[in-house]
Design brief:
The complex is a heterodimer of chains A (248) and B (436). Chain A contains 9 helices and 12 strands. Chain A has 248 residues and is of the alpha/beta class. In chain A, α4 (117-130) packs across α6 and α6 (148-162) runs parallel beside α7. Chain B has one domain. In chain B, strands 1, 4, 5, 7, 9, 11, 13, 15, 17 and 19 form a 10-stranded mixed β-sheet that branches. In chain B, a hairpin with a 2-residue loop joins β2 and β3 (98-100). The chains are: A alpha/beta (248), B alpha/beta (436).
């Protein structure tokens, strides 16, 4: 599904990623761990096409397509979704307007017709139950006045609406209490199919108690320095990152 | 040479013709108005209230003036429908500056007719506040609309006035509206400007409003003309005590527009709301200038003007709140927020506050911003194209003004029109047969 080869990327002239290699196949969940500033968010931003980041070397292919040649919105409609670490508030743009534009863009890319208004509303109703989002929230402006937990749930709600094939959860667990974490993680798990893959970025084991990764990677100084199975996450939880650094 | 001269000459040579096709009450104030205009000429860019709009330049071309009151050969209803679905209104047309009624409308007549039916009212209220450009309008205007709602009466259906500009040659139009609400009366008016021909149009418009105690007025103005139209509007509102008055001015499509709005709060406990929404691109120019004069205690004034300018458009807003010595307990707020969607677009903003009373609550503020990059990225990550995302943000920005409109069908219609405008589908007016 996603193949990253020798990826180098910088922001404002500062190199953050320096030679990332990562292959994610259909249906796999990969966890990406690492200290602050290791480049985890940079990697996710580069995958989704944030304009502030510059790729200086390397390739990313997504289902055989050259991802780096695609615009941000084209990557999204091709099936890539990122749950933001800090979801953006958009005053004046209602969740409905926003979701309708997004869902129809995705459908268009899939060669489907635009959803009728009634079908769209029905879909909104069904999907918001997945993450136990209040109907009041979906009638408000995008993320405006939402609590931290509501914003994260809203991210998963959007995922439910857009049915992506590749998801990035960028520190989705940050700022969530245990109950909210469970709701968000269970929502994600219910949305998964055999074809969906994910890259889960986290500092902690606790999210991985709910979303079980097939592989765990450690990113340090812009490179993946260690990969393993789920047990690696537990080991990091117990021992921290220093032992990996020392081995370098 | 100051372009005022051609208007002075026009008046000197055509005075009799102008008067012949007008009414004695209107003619009575003409000479004095022209004399004052002659002394001052057009306001120059050096004048505080005209810093952002070059009046002389707009008036310089040689426009035709229909002083002979030749009927413009159209049936407005056949060529034009300015629909607001689900809004039941009384419809009046003003073709250039000639009012046209298909049937009697309660409380509404032409000014010339009013000079016969209610000469005492016209004498009392007509041309009582004219200054500057309004004086030229007084000198040249031959007819207009008269809205008169007597004591405690209620205008059941809103009055919708379609101002249609129609001409085969460059044309100057002098429109006039006089609105008199007696004690406890209420009225709702919607004035829509449309241009039907691609010639150069110069419109001067004077709207004089007198709200007696306890009256209510909702006045909406929507401009949807074209890039060759110049509009100079002077709105003067005189407010008694315990009134609730709102004015919404929406400039959706235009060439050059200058709206001057002067409000005098002369009675206690009245509320005035002035809202403005401007969408401009190409080389469009929109200048809103307001003066809210708090003369009496315990009044509330609210101003909210929002602009979205793109390409090479120029937006200007200058608003002054004047709180006089006796206007204690004034509650006054003025906000001007602007979105500059391109580096080539320009915004000038000048909120002003002048306070002579010591027990008041006043605030004013203005902002000029660009589109939120983070919000754009967020939307694009959800698959929304960059263009669509920009559109949603612009739409959201002015939505706040439209949401404040009390008439729900109009509110919905305006949301629709604004969206179309941002989508570039409103290069000409909507819903009219001309655009087929």
């Amino acid at each position: 599904m996603l193949e990253i080869r020798n990826l180098h990327a910088s922001i404002a002239g500062k190199e953050i990623l320096n030679g990332v290699d990562l292959t994610i196949r259909d249906g796999e969940i990969h966890a990406l761990m690492g200290t602050n500033g290791a480049g985890k968010s940079t990697l996710s931003n580069v995958i989704v096409g944030h304009p502030a980041y510059e790729v200086t070397q390397g390739t990313i292919t997504f289902n055989g397509q050259d991802l780096l040649a695609m615009k941000t919105e084209e990557r999204a409609t091709a099936g890539i979704f990122m749950s933001f670490q800090q979801p953006i508030e958009i005053p004046g743009v209602s969740m409905q307007q926003f979701m309708r534009a997004a869902v129809n863009a995705r459908r268009k890319a899939l060669g489907k017709e635009e959803l009728k208004a009634t079908d769209f509303l029905k879909m909104m109703r069904e999907r918001r139950k997945l993450v136990e989002i209040d109907s009041k929230l979906v009638n408000r402006s995008v993320n405006e006045g939402f609590s931290g937990g509501e914003k994260k749930r809203n991210e998963i709600f959007q995922m439910a609406m857009l049915e992506p094939t590749f998801c990035i959860l960028d520190e989705t667990d940050s700022g969530l209490d245990v109950d909210a974490l469970r709701i968000v993680a269970e929502g994600f798990n219910r949305l998964r199919t055999d074809e969906t893959s994910a890259l889960v970025i986290t500092h902690y084991q606790r999210l991985l108690d709910y979303i079980h990764p097939d592989f765990v990677h450690v990113l340090l100084d812009g490179r993946i320095v260690k990969s393993g199975g789920p047990e690696l996450a537990q080991e990091i939880e117990d021992r921290g990152f220093d032992w990996i650094k020392e081995k370098q | 040479m100051n372009s005022a001269q051609q208007y002075i000459d026009l008046y000197a040579s055509q005075r009799d013709l102008i008067c012949h096709h007008s009414a004695p009450v209107m003619n009575a104030v003409r000479d004095a108005a022209m004399e004052q205009f002659q002394q001052r000429g057009f306001p120059s860019l050096k004048e505080e209230r005209y810093r952002y709009t070059d009046v002389t330049k707009a008036f310089a071309p040689d426009y035709g003036v229909n002083l002979n009151r030749v009927q413009v050969p159209i049936n407005p209803r056949e060529v034009f429908r300015c629909d607001v679905p689900n809004l039941s209104t009384h419809l009046a047309y003003v073709v250039n500056d000639q009012p046209l009624f298909e049937r009697d409308i309660p409380y509404v007549s032409s000014l010339r007719q009013a000079c016969i039916d209610h000469p005492e009212l016209v004498v009392k209220y007509y041309n009582k506040a004219a200054t500057g450009l309004a004086l030229l309008n007084t000198a040249l205007a031959q007819d207009g609309l008269f809205v008169y709602v007597p004591k405690n009466q209620h205008m059941e259906r809103p009055l919708q006035v379609l101002n249609l500009l129609r001409s085969g040659v460059d044309m100057m139009v002098n429109r006039r509206v006089l609105i008199v609400l007696e004690e406890g009366a209420d009225a709702t008016l919607l004035l829509c400007d449309h241009a039907m021909d691609r010639v150069l149009f110069l419109t001067t418009q004077v709207i004089e409003v007198f709200c007696a105690d306890r009256s209510r007025l909702d006045l909406y103005e929507l401009e949807e003309t074209h890039t060759r139209c110049r509009r100079f509007s002077n709105l003067h509102v005189h407010v008694g005590s315990d009134c609730v008055v709102s004015h919404n001015s929406i400039t959706l499509y235009n060439g050059l527009t200058r709206n001057t709005t002067d409000v005098v709060l002369d009675g206690e406990r009245s509320e005035i709301t002035l809202n403005g929404c401007v969408v401009a691109d190409k080389r469009q120019h929109v200048d809103n200038n307001t003066l809210v004069d708090h003369r009496a205690p315990s009044c509330t004034s609210r101003q909210l003007y929002k602009y979205v300018v793109d390409e090479e458009a120029v937006g200007a807003f200058a608003g002054k709140m004047l709180v006089r010595k006796d206007a204690q307990k004034t509650d006054s707020k003025e906000t001007n927020a602007n979105l500059c969607a391109a580096t080539t677009a320009r915004i000038y903003t000048q909120p002003m506050l002048e306070i002579y009373a010591d027990d008041v609550q006043c605030s004013h503020g203005s902002t000029v911003g660009v589109l939120d990059e983070q919000a754009l990225f967020y939307m694009q990550q959800r698959g929304i194209s960059a263009d669509e995302a920009r559109l949603l943000l612009k739409f959201a920005f002015v939505g706040q003004v439209i949401d404040s409109i009390r008439l729900e069908p109009l509110r919905e219609r305006l949301h629709y029109l604004v969206e179309k405008r941002f989508r570039g589908e409103l290069n000409k007016c909507t819903g009219c047969a001309l655009c087929k």
